[in-house]
Amino acid sequence: MTALKLEHVVKRFGEFVSVQDVSLSIEPGERVALLGHNGAGKTTMMRMILGLTPLSSGRIEVLGSAPGSRQARRHTGFLPENVAFHGALTGREQLRHFARLKSVPARVADDLLERVGLGPAADRRIRTYSKGMRQRIGLAQALLGQPKLALLDEPTSGLDPVSRHDFYEIVHELSAAGTAVLLSSHALTELETSTDRIAILSRGRLVANDDLASLRRAAHLPIRVSVTTTDENVEEVAARLGGQRINGHSVELTCQPDEKVSLLGRITGLGEVIKDVDVIPASLEELYRYYSTSAGEKK
Amino acid sequence: MSAILSIARLEMLIARRNMWVATSVLLMALFSVVLTLAGAGTGANLAASPLEVAVSSITTLSVYLVPLVGLLLSFDAVSGEIERGTLALSLSYPLSRGEILIGKFLAHFAVLAFAVAVGLGLTGVLAIWQNGGPAMSFAPLWRLFATSLALGSAFLGLGYLVSSLVRAPGVASGLAIVIWLVAVVLYDLGLLGALVADGGGTFTKEIFPWLLVANPADAFRLLNMPEAATAELASGLSAAGAVSGPAGQLASLLLWPLLAMLLAWAAFRKVEP
Predict the structure, then answer these.
(1) So what's the ipTM on this one?
(2) Which chain A residues touch B6 with a CB distance below 8 Å?
(3) Is B44 on the interface with A (CB under 8 A)?
(4) Is 90 exceeded by the pLDDT of residue B76?
(5) Is A141 in Cβ contact with B14 (below 8 Å)?
(6) Fold (CATH) for A4-217
(7) Which residues in chain B touch residue A80, judged by CB atoms under 8 angstroms apart?
(8) Looking at domain A222-281, does it have CATH number 2.30.30.100?
């Protein structure tokens, strides 16, 4: 069964159209990253999937049920943006409460606290926690009861690089166990390796929805090739390859994806003067910028 | 059911740590003790039982205090969660909004019951200590306890209603104070003004008694004012109370909590966190 299906979803707030005709589906075990500027409609989309706010038109199906239905909520884990808890409670009290709401044994909550590295702080008031620690409680509660769908809104904000790495490891385990994961993020670089598909929302519209390689192909963004030469030959190499000299010993070239192999052939044909070659495909940032500006929308 | 209990448990923890429990208990205990001791001096002259005098003065006080405690416990229940951002997460769990509201109500009701019980318990103990227990009837004390809980429940419900309607806790607290002022002070003043203007006409005889009992605070007052001597001592409301009768007063006091909770639920269902 498809874990999440959106069909022509529209959300209006008065005149303002927050989400415009978005269709998207996620299969079990798939990790989909939802990218977009602030105000692009990511959070609104998640709120509609949770049934917290009604759609203006279109249809959403969560695990075969209506969004917000008890059936859907039982199998959905949610980590809100800037997750907050009552400061007077301890992490353990809060998590065990959520466990009871999901009919999960208290032991599972305790294990999860350990899993997200909060074991030693579990019995301290949440008021004393750092932002990262609150984020971990938020992640732990989203994992309760082995959700079939995990919605993670800006899950890595406030986490240091090590915690981010741990976080994506947990996401990987989740998806390996069959959970469909939809996560939104600003931190683009970390998504390159840790998601299966990328969906880009721009001003409420879904402007891209594919895996990274396909997005790169479709965008036809130039590939950068950086050539390192010996110092004496840098001018000559730049002239012969038609590239731009950037310092005393390297030259930068750009080419379309289909010209890459022939260009590399020309470079190696120069022989001894070439010391090193780096091929840099379009980064996620560049792709994101491409798809979220008008160039992407026209396609 | 387990969801309701879990919410109630969590809310009790929060109420205890936020010092709401301590504050409510202290408030009720302090006033009950002071009024019981103050009443003990006057009882002898008026030939009323000392407990009746104490109950009468505590009733007068509870009309102000119990609604206040109820509103203080409840005004933050929904708006506070919206502001903190905890409501969206709670609503993503498989439980209904009705369950959330009932869970919170159970916790706050327990806090209120505990505070009132401590206050009235102290009154009972003091009365026994001063006059010797066996001969005394504790019925007025029990009646005061039960009706205080009904009164408090009505204002808990009104607090949730306000909290769901306005979203911002600051505004909710302001509105709660307005509700309190209207219910326990301005309403009676308005009626009094109308009585004076009417000068003993149909309004005074036909409408006023029902308007009076429609206010849970006044229904509470009428139910608890022991007849005879102390009634005159406290106020001249007993004549009006005779028209609506204890059944009408009790109905008002029991219907208000239900009505308030239903309205609160209806408002809470519309809240988008």
Answers:
(1) 0.87
(2) 97, 100-101
(3) no
(4) yes
(5) no
(6) Rossmann fold (3.40.50)
(7) 85, 88-89, 92
(8) no
